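Hi everyone,

Forwarding the result from last night's run.
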Amino acid sequence: MNPVSYSEKLVRMIFDTLSAHIAIIDDKGRILAVNAAWKQFSRNNSGKDGDFTGINYLTVCDAASEDGAGGAHAVAKGIRAVIQGTLSEFLYDYPCHSPEGKKWFYMRAVPMIEGKQVRVIVSHEDITELKLAQEALKEQNQSLEEANTALKVLLGQR
């Protein structure tokens, strides 16, 4: 039985149809490839071409110095653990707010090993709707707790 052989063009088409923003990095952290969603997100948020092939993802995370720097440093550490094989998967969710509104993403890094070559698939999935629903539920729960406290006070006074 022969294994299924896919053309590079077909694999690229599949890669580019995925909604998650995906980068493939090597064992040093250098970006080898990104999908169409990654490029589009970059164009929408920075106005620049979003390829980033050749840029070192880990170096960018290490150099972060803004409000989210702690998160970026944790991401770099987690990806390095995946590269070294001490973690089979690294997960991280984070805010990525913009002038257009609040946004959150779920990042996942998993190894792809072929022979001695280690590659890491880094995906960022938009979880904004989920986070907004969680915030709404939290606010609703707080309102219900306040109403419950008020009712207890009223009952205590009767």
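The mean pLDDT is 86.

Cheers,
N.
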